[in-house]
Task: structure prediction
Amino acid sequence: MCTQNKKGSFLGLLVLVGMFVFPTFSLAATLHAILVSDTNDASIGTSVQVDQKKLQGLMKSISEYTGITLSPHYVSGNQLNRANVELAINSVSNVGSDDVIFFFWSGHGFNDESSSSRSKYPTMHLGNWQNTLGLESVANMLKQKKPRLLIVIGDTCNKPMGGSRGEEIARGEKDENYKELFLNYRGTILASSSITGQYSYGNTQTGGLYTSAFLNSLSKELASSGTPSWKTLMGRANTPINVGSGVVQQPQFDITDGGGTIDGGGTTGDHDDCRVVDETGRQRICGAPAPPRPEPPNPPREDNGKCVEDSYYKDKATKQECCKTEGGGKKCWDDWES
Result:
């Protein structure tokens, strides 16, 4: 189960956004906002409520500053289940060629390793572990409606079954920047709050850490004196999140536009220009398997036990990579990659 500071495999945040320049738009455009939130969960409900309020405010701001008509479809509390989520998706009909669809999930999730069509993006946990729906499946369903701009975001863990989820928006946003980002772009962005095998974290004060990072990055682009860019926005939001106690949460994204695909931390494709920080804090090329750890030749402390899962950390004093062992001791390596 997900606990205090982690969200079940979100995506850990999944995002699908338009990236093609589209200079003209209809004043009759509609923003179809589908916000799905597990606000009743005992462990993360308070954090999710914070996310929900932020996102509802964002939807109103987009409508206000662009003139797009807001059509809200919100699912939360006792209404949260797969049937109601699919009902909300299916209720988005008669989508115009200039319309925007914005889907956001905040709650528990996991990476479904058992699925024959396994995705690097997470599966939503909608009330119980048998009541699920993949974020990539949601994206595919909404993509068939052919909106000009499609955004699908999930702030949730991306671990195998049984994971856990553990600054305010800047002022000075410009009307023209809202229009540039939400009226003048077409294409696809696919993103999540953590890479495969990681948790996503949040707290009761600021909500999901990636949600805050994404919204803060968005706010900076909206306040930019230059031309706002989804590439810049998502690249900034993709900065590794230092959760604390040696834990690092690494987001991921892919952008597809007229110039090709930009890989910002996914697990497939060409990763030569992208590096991520894995769960131990070591940098590596996006999607590349973690290098094997050699047995430490002279560990400072040895109890002959195995490393505890997810217990790797960097020793600040020795600059070595270490792990906690089952017997209460630790093992350290002297080949830490800076």
Remarks:
- The radius of gyration is 20 Å.
- Residues 45-66 form the longest helix (22 residues).
